[in-house]
Amino acid sequence: MPRASVVLLPGDGIGPEVAREARAALELLVPDVEIDEQLLGGAAIRATGEPLPAATLEACRAATAVLKAPVGDPEFDAADVRPEQGLLALRAALDTYANLRPAVLDDVDVLIVRELVGGLYFGASGVRDDGTVYDTCEYHPRQVERIVRRGFELARARRGKLTSVDKANVLETSRLWRRIVNEQAERYPDVEVEHVLVDNAAMQLATAPQQFDVLVTENMFGDILSDLAAAVTGGLGLAPSASLADGGAGLFEPVHGSAPDLAGRGVANPTAMLRSTALLLEHGLGLRDQARALSRAVDATLEVVRTPDLGGTATTAEFGAAVREQLAVDGATAVPYRA
Q1: Is 289 assigned a catalytic role?
Q2: Residue 106 known to be catalytic
């Protein structure tokens, strides 16, 4: 049987430091995993002139899953070629259209399902002769159908409630979105469905997030709401994400940025990167038990080991080592990957 092939993209800033801890945890839980480190973002621009080199894209397309640390560097903020362009191109090339953003804390357990390769961020944009600038939000029905089906399937496997977020009172794309949700709902009679306008959804997430199970929404709305949900449940520094395709490699990455001011100091919190690794174990490799073990180990470590962002003094490496020690205490079993 084939071995698991994971492409690791260490990224920029604190990326290589948190990626190192994720790699150690992954190798502990899946000893025969094949890990291939490739360049993306600012590091790739410096080495090749491109934010997504051809070799990186080829490796990602051939992999079982892709684990990405944050990218971004102030050096390129005003440049024509920027690190973030590599990430957007990678998402589009892998067609990882379904972005899963879990937000969990105490009695809050929300999963935001964000359409990731369409909408405003991928529509036509430019500058007209009179100086007007424009960005176009476009969706094809097939793009909406597949993300809505993914939302229904996930809700069915959880608590059976799907909240569709749109702006149907204003936007034509949202009216298409709502129509397709209603059509798909007929296939999922066991899932409760509600429609909520995005501004109301933001208010409800901030004040009463316990009411939500799965939220499904378009790209820009999901971008904003998932950051809000992360803030409600502990902050972006702790938040993971998974971006899935229909077949092919999924992309797993922390939500936070590259924090260049912390780079090289060994104080970055690797929690979000480790939690993204847990999502990779579950959704990328199908190793649910190992995914849960890693999630439990991270949660247990957070109770006693704090990096400076959480008021403690632990280094990145010390936190990662504590997680691996907790895995041993928890009796987590290392397993070979079998496709």
Answers
A1: no
A2: no
Among 36-40, 71-75, 245-249, 315-319, the range scoring the smallest mean pLDDT is 245-249
Superfamily of domain 101-235: Isopropylmalate Dehydrogenase (3.40.718.10)
Query: Are domains 1-96+245-339 and 101-235 of this chain identical in fold?
Result: yes
Q: What is the pTM assigned to this prediction?
A: 0.89
Residue 199 appears among annotated catalytic residues: yes
| The pLDDT value given to residue 70 | 97
CATH superfamily of the 1-96+245-339 domain? Isopropylmalate Dehydrogenase (3.40.718.10)
Q: What band does 91 get if pLDDT is binned at 50, 70 and 90?
A: very high
Catalytic residue among 12, 73, 166, 223: 223
Specify the pLDDT at position 129: 97
Where do the structural domains in the chain lie, given as residue ranges? Answer: 1-96+245-339, 101-235
pLDDT of res. 329: 82
Task: Enter the tokens of residue 288.
Answer: 């649910």
Residue range 179-186: mean pLDDT, rounded:
98
Q: Is 32 a catalytic residue?
A: no
Residue 188 designated active-site: no
Catalytic one of 77, 199, 246, 289: 199
With beta carbons less than 8 A apart as the criterion, state whether 36 and 7 touch.
yes
- 200 band by pLDDT with thresholds 50, 70 and 90: very high
